[in-house]
Recover the amino acids of this structure.
C-alpha cells in the first residue's frame, strides 16, 4: 500500500524529515510531537505498519493535527517508503522484536534512527544494531523517557553532588499493579519472542536508570524468575472455570476482575478492535492463558564495573504501582520512592498514594539529621519526562544537559544486556558475564560522578548522654 494523498515534494523545506514505523498507541507521542508541538522544526513524511488499519488511522491523525497527510506503507514496503519519502530520521515504534530489522535497514539507507525501548530483545539482534551503527556511522537514539522525569534528575543531582559519597550498593524494587502489570499478559508482550519478557521489555527502563544514575556499566548478572500469578491455576483459585481465549468472547466476563472491555474505550476500539480484521491480533487476551511464557516475579543481582552492586526485583501483581530505590554510599544513604497512577486503571486514582503526590526523596547521612527533598516537578505524561524528551529530540539546538539524558545505542545495549543476561540465567542457572553476550559495546557517555577510593571524612562518634 502506498496510499499517498500528498506527494513528498510538497513537504520540501528545511524542517527535518521523519518517518515512523509502528503506529500503535506509543507512536502517537512522536506523531503529535512532530505535527503539533515541533512542527516548526519537523515534518512527518511517511508512516508504516504491519496493520493497514493502523496506517490509515495514523494518516487520519495527521489530518486531525492539521498537518499534511503523509503517504502510508505496509511493513513489506518499508524499503519503498525510504526510497520515496527520503526521511532524515526513521522512528521505530513497532513491537520490540522487530526494532532491529528497521533500525539496521534505515541506517543502511543513510538515515539516522530513533528507537523506542527496549532497543531490541536478544544478544544477536543487539550485535546487529551495534555493527550497523559502526558500519554506517549513522546516529541511533534510544528514547529512555524515564531519565527525563524531574524527580529522577533530582536523584542524579544528589548522586553527582557527592553528598552520599560513592555508591557501593543499590536496592531497587519496581512494582506493577494488577491493572498495568496484568496488561502485559494480555498483549504481544506475553511471549518472549516478541518482548524478551519483562526483564527486557520493562526492566530496560530500570537497568538504564541504574546505569545512568551510577555512571557505570554492568559486568555480571545473576537472576531468578517465574510466573506464579498470571496462570491457569490462579484463574481457578480466583473462582473462574479456568483460562479463556480473550475477554471479548469470555463467558465469565462478569466474574473476572481482569476483564478488559475493548469496545467501551473509543481509543482502544479504534486502534485494536476495529483493526483485528487486518492481522488477527487480539489486544484483550486472557491474562491467565497457559501459552504465556514471560515471568511475573523476578529478582536480579548485578555487578558493575565501578564495584557497585544492584539488588533488583520486579513484580507484576502488586497492590500499588511504582518503585523504591536506595543508594548506599560511603557518606550516607539516598532513599527515593515514587507511587505512580497508571492509565489502565481508568480511575486516575493512586493506590498507596501519599500526601505529597507520590514522590519522596530523603538523604540520610551516616551521622546527623536526615533531610527530605522537595520533589522537582513538571507536567505531562511520565511525570513530564515525555515532554522534556521530545524537546531534546526535536529542537534543532536543545539546551545543554548536565545530566546527559540523551541516550544512544551504547546505553540501549547496556540496559537490555542486563535483562538478556538475566534471561540466560533463568535458562542455565549460572552467572552471566555481559561481555560474553555481544562484542564491542563502547562505554556510554555519563556525567562526572564523585571520585572513588579517595580520602573520606571520619564519621563522628556516637555521644552517650
Ligand atoms: N517509553 C515508554 O514508556 C513506552 C511506552 C509504551 C510503549 N513503548 C514502546 O513502544 C513500542 C510500541 O509499543 P505500543 O505500546 O505502541 O504497542 P502497540 O501494540 O500499541 O503498537 C505496536 C505497533 O507495531 C506494529 N508492528 C508490530 N510488528 C511490526 C512489524 N514487524 N512491522 C511493522 N509494524 C509492526 C503493530 O501493528 C502495532 O501497530 C514498543 O517497543 C514499546 O516497548 C515505550
Amino acid at each position: 500500500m502506498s496510499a499517498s494523498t500528498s506527494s513528498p515534494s510538497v513537504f520540501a523545506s528545511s524542517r527535518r524529515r521523519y518517518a515512523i514505523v509502528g503506529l500503535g498507541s506509543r507512536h502517537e507521542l512522536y506523531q503529535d510531537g512532530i505535527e503539533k508541538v515541533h512542527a516548526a522544526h519537523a515534518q512527518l513524511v511517511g508512516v508504516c505498519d504491519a496493520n493497514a488499519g493502523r496506517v490509515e488511522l495514523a494518516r487520519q491523525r495527521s489530518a486531525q493535527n492539521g498537518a499534511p497527510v503523509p503517504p502510508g506503507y505496509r511493513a513489506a514496503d518499508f524499503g519503498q517508503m525510504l526510497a520515496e519519502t527520503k526521511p532524515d530520521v526513521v522512528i521505530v515504534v513497532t513491537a520490540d522484536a522487530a526494532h532491529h530489522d528497521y533500525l539496521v535497514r534505515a541506517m543502511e539507507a543513510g538515515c539516522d534512527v530513533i528507537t523506542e525501548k527496549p532497543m531490541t530483545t536478544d544478544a544477536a539482534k543487539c550485535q546487529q544494531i551495534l555493527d550497523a551503527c559502526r558500519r554506517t556511522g549513522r546516529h541511533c537514539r534510544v528514547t529512555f523517557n524515564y531519565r527525563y522525569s524531574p524527580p529522577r534528575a533530582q536523584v542524579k543531582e544528589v548522586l553527582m553532588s557527592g553528598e552520599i559519597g560513592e555508591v557501593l550498593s543499590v536496592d531497587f524494587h519496581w512494582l506493577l499493579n494488577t491493572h498495568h502489570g496484568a496488561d502485559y499478559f494480555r498483549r504481544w508482550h506475553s511471549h518472549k519472542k516478541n518482548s524478551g519478557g519483562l526483564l527486557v521489555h520493562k526492566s530496560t527502563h530500570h537497568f538504564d536508570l541504574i546505569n545512568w544514575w551510577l555512571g557505570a556499566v554492568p559486568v555480571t548478572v545473576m537472576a531468578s524468575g517465574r510466573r506464579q500469578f498470571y496462570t491457569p491455576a490462579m484463574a481457578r483459585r480466583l473462582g473462574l472455570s479456568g483460562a479463556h481465549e480473550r475477554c471479548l468472547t469470555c463467558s465469565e466476563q462478569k466474574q473476572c476482575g481482569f476483564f478488559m472491555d475493548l469496545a467501551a474505550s473509543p481509543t482502544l476500539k479504534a486502534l485494536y478492535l476495529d483493526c483485528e480484521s487486518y492481522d488477527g491480533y487480539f489486544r484483550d487476551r486472557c491474562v491467565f492463558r497457559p501459552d504465556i511464557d514471560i515471568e511475573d516475579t523476578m529478582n536480579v543481582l548485578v555487578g558493575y564495573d565501578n564495584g557497585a552492586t544492584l539488588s533488583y526485583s520486579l513484580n507484576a501483581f502488586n497492590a500499588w504501582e511504582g518503585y523504591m530505590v536506595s543508594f548506599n554510599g560511603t557518606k550516607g544513604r539516598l532513599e527515593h520512592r515514587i507511587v505512580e497512577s497508571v492509565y489502565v486503571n481508568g480511575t486516575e486514582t493512586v493506590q498507596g498514594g501519599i500526601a505529597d503526590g507520590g514522590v519522596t526523596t530523603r538523604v540520610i547521612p551516616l551521622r546527623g539529621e536526615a533531610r527530605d527533598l522537595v520533589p522537582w516537578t513538571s507536567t505531562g505524561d511520565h511525570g513530564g519526562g515525555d515532554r522534556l524528551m521530545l524537546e531534546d529530540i526535536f529542537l534543532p539546538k536543545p539546551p545543554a544537559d548536565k545530566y546527559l539524558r540523551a541516550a544512544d545505542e551504547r546505553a540501549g545495549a547496556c540496559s537490555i544486556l542486563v535483562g538478556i543476561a538475566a534471561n540466560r540465567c533463568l535458562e542455565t542457572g549460572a552467572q552471566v558475564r555481559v561481555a560474553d553476550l555481544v562484542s564491542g559495546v563502547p562505554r556510554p557517555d555519563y556525567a562526572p560522578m564523585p571520585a572513588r577510593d579517595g580520602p573520606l571524612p571520619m564519621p563522628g562518634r556516637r555521644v552517650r548522654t
Remarks:
- Residues 21-27, 49-51, 54, 75, 93-96, 98, 116-117, 145, 201 surround nicotinamide-adenine-dinucleotide (CB under 6 Å).
- Residues 232-279 form one domain.
